[in-house]
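> call design_seq(struct)
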């Protein structure tokens, strides 16, 4: 990558070129959003509104020149006087990543519009706005690593989230869900963490389907460190996505902010295992605020890792749906009337389809000694003719047998012998 001009110089030139040709973002716009992705932590309502009102290039000019409102400029602090865009873009290029901005065709604007709507409902007074870690603020830009197009992968996507300290049950369910969804053409989105996240990613990849890991650090960093091979596999067909520029560390507060992006990039969120206090629960509540379905896999009532799941199901206002397989999930997030879950298979029984009289006669038959049709009629509470009418059918079904002196239930070892 050739050396970039000074940031302020490019912003001045970019302002003159803001008329553009309509062929996508100008280099100045892309660089402006790269700078904005580092200068302030994501999730700030005042900062996002300032950039929306002025445009990214003008926002950078005002912040750099000290003409931005003090409340907005303070959100960047010492970072406002720094410029690491050249290094960020170079690091991204070296690891096969790119910066996707709202002005790109690849931007998943349809799904992320729910964040814009939710932010517009926030009060103007900052004292009454949602905290930064839970505010439904759209991202300034997204650093994306992998060859697939972001907008195409998230068009039919489902988030699977859950506990990092998962049980064997939770990992099995998450892997099965990821595999089944992948087989049906759905992209699994999760956070790349230990436990349920990793199981969901691996399940999708086992089905030959792409998956997306939304990170709380730079896309050139592997966190957790043990997931280097997993992240490499994800980028082969899927994507690593982050709001933070390359090199950014996985600070704890960033995981809370990241949750809204997992919810916003998908058509629904499935919680497989969640403790009483967990990030998975937080992601589910972000999804609900965005109007997306919340689905929950129940667990044993004795399991601490399923307490959060059961609390979500008990929350009447949340309206979470209990799911047990991919069919249930797709029914909740798919096309109305088309993506319906198959009914669970039910074991068949020889009594299925019998008339009421036939069932009563069958129940009246003794196990050992045979009895006459008259006796069966008395016990079953019907006419002898009704008994004589149903006995041949019951005999053909190997449910009753003639002993020579009367009728009785057929012995199990004789059933199906004909």
């Amino acid at each position: 990558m050739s050396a970039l001009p000074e940031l302020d110089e490019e912003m001045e030139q970019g302002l003159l070129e803001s008329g553009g040709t309509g062929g996508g973002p100008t280099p100045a716009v892309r660089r402006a959003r790269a700078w904005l992705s580092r200068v302030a932590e994501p999730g700030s309502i005042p900062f996002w509104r300032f950039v929306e009102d002025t445009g990214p290039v003008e926002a950078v000019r005002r912040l750099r020149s000290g003409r931005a409102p003090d409340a907005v400029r303070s959100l960047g602090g010492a970072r406002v006087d720094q410029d690491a865009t050249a290094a960020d873009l170079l690091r991204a290029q070296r690891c096969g990543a790119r910066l996707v901005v709202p002005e790109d065709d690849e931007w998943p604007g349809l799904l992320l519009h729910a964040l814009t709507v939710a932010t517009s409902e926030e009060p103007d007074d900052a004292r009454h706005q949602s905290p930064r870690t839970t505010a439904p603020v759209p991202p300034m830009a997204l650093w994306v690593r992998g060859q697939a197009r972001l907008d195409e992968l998230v068009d039919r996507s489902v988030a699977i989230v859950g506990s990092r300290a998962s049980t064997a049950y939770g990992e099995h369910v998450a892997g099965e869900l990821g595999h089944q969804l992948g087989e049906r053409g759905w992209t699994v989105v999760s956070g790349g963490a230990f436990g349920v996240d990793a199981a969901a990613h691996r399940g999708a990849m086992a089905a030959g389907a792409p998956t997306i890991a939304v990170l709380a650090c730079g896309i050139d960093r592997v966190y957790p460190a043990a997931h280097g091979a997993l992240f490499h596999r994800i980028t082969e067909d899927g994507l690593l996505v982050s709001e933070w520029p390359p090199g950014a560390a996985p600070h704890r507060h960033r995981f809370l902010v990241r949750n809204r992006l997992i919810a916003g990039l998908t058509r629904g969120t499935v919680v497989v295992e969640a403790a009483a206090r967990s990030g998975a629960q937080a992601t589910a509540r972000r999804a609900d605020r965005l109007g997306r379905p919340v689905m929950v896999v129940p667990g044993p009532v004795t399991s601490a890792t399923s307490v959060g799941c059961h609390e979500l199901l008990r929350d009447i206002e949340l309206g979470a749906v209990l799911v047990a397989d991919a069919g249930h999930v797709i029914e909740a997030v798919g096309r109305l009337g088309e993506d319906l879950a198959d009914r669970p298979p039910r074991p068949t029984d020889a009594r299925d389809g019998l008339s009421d009289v036939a069932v009563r006669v069958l129940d009246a038959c003794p196990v050992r000694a045979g009895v006459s049709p008259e006796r069966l009629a008395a016990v079953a509470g019907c006419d002898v003719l009704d008994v004589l009418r149903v006995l041949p059918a019951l005999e053909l079904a190997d449910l009753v047998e003639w002993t020579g002196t009367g009728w009785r239930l057929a012995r199990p070892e004789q059933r199906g012998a004909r």
